[in-house]
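Researcher: For the record, we're logging two predictions in this thread. I'll number them. Prediction 1 follows.
Model: Prediction 1, sequence and structure:
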Amino acid sequence: MLSLAQLLYKEVADLPIISPHGHTDAAWFAYNEPFTDPTALLITPDHYVYRMLYSQGISLTQLGMDANQRRGARAPDPAEVWQLFAAHYHLFRGTPTRIWLDHVFAEVFGIEEPLTAQTASAYYERMTHQLTRPEFRPRALFERFNIELLATTESPLDELQSHSVLQADTWSGRVITTFRPDPVVDPDYEHFADNIATLGRLSGEDTTHFDGYLRALRERRAFFRAHGATATDHGHPTARTANLAPADVAALYSQALNQGLDAQKAELFRAHMLVEMATMSLEDGMVMQLHPGVYRNHNPWLFEQYGRDRGADIPQTTTYVEALKPLLDKYGNEPAFKLILFTLDETTYARELAPLAGHYPCLTLGPPWWFNDSPEGMRRFRRATTETAGFYNTAGFNDDTRAFLSIPARHDLARRIDCGFLAQLVAEHALDENEAVESARQLAYGLAKRAYRL
């Protein structure tokens, strides 16, 4: 079985990378400026890294991420931050983060010596020097990594300047945007009313009433489509959907803008907006992604001090069968509508998600996400979902990362795990070898292109 897994891996190891969902910065590729230093490249943008350090008592201020530094406090030297990180590199033993970082050090920078407090300075100096070279600029690395397509994620309030620069450029790399409407569909999002006013200004619509608000969202979706977007992404707390009467949702919207909504009403508004977004997806052809089940910014002190997305997001129980029924009652049988479902609640894999995707034409299962994006997490996903949903109701793999240099490592790991799973199926006489080869290629490359309409 091991030799077959290795043979399957050879079939897919060099396939181009399709990265259809992630959070890298489009400006890196638009302006192609050198990365400044290893700390800014590998530590500051990566919540997998700094949440582990924070868990051991290292403050985000020590890592150079304190908003108060804008008021005159001395920011730590990036080399000092790197030394601190290296001295605590043992914390990552056994984690997928360690796999990705070791891959970056060895395959991207050619450093085989283990990272420790004693080797930190040599690492930093060598990497900093390499980052000044043309072959380490963002576009060169993009090409070296054999990335065929990379999608970034932007708010509807983003004017997509970097994507406009990319569209006007002759560079052959394909970098597209993804429409993430959370700041203007979630009444609990900070500065929600101000965000809606900005949405109105950008779209030229009157967003003080619900009909104008919907027109504004359609206009921004069209703007994103013109900049390459093929998908939307929705980071709601739950998968709840609702079909409200027009007068009821208009009243909720007005209250959200003027008085604010309590938790129950805010959840109801978000639930209705998922159905509105599905309606728009059926109109404009954009694939819809749903990433629920996270208690975001669970640490209120950290949120107040450092802002959102600082590693304090925690998985929670999520249900789909009842939650999605209003949306599926309306659009579940529409093959032209595509909804990719993700979860952080692994207990739903076999019980809810695989049966739903194995029935409804509109549904596709996204790969193991975030805390589940690990060797064992990938294996658990395949074991729990394949018997009911098969492979072709899944979206292949996406890396969903802010850490650009980790993209090849993440895709390589997913390809290895899938090849091992396929080899086991061959050994059990569930597949023949030719089917395993074809399935491996689809999981590594073809399914993502199909799922995201690329």
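Researcher: Logged. Prediction 2.
Model: Prediction 2, sequence and structure:
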Amino acid sequence: MMALLAVAARRPQHNWYTADPLAHDPRFWEQILTVLQAGPRLLLEVGFTNYDDDAQLIAPQVTFITRCKSNPAYHIQQVLHKSAHRPDDIIG
């Protein structure tokens, strides 16, 4: 089961279901992309980290926040906050 939530309202906006018990979260990616409009902000679980999929979010101007995998390759565009344990960067 997958849901897109309106975090501030704490309500689901869209829900999807598959009976496949081995389905991974990214299986719902196409359905998610069809309902996104320009301007939303997404909080994504690390299971959604796929750079090809991330590029699909940039075109409709979707901002997203996610945890990095253990071996990411990226370029830091701006440092928002620097600490030893939790850096906060805008990457490209």
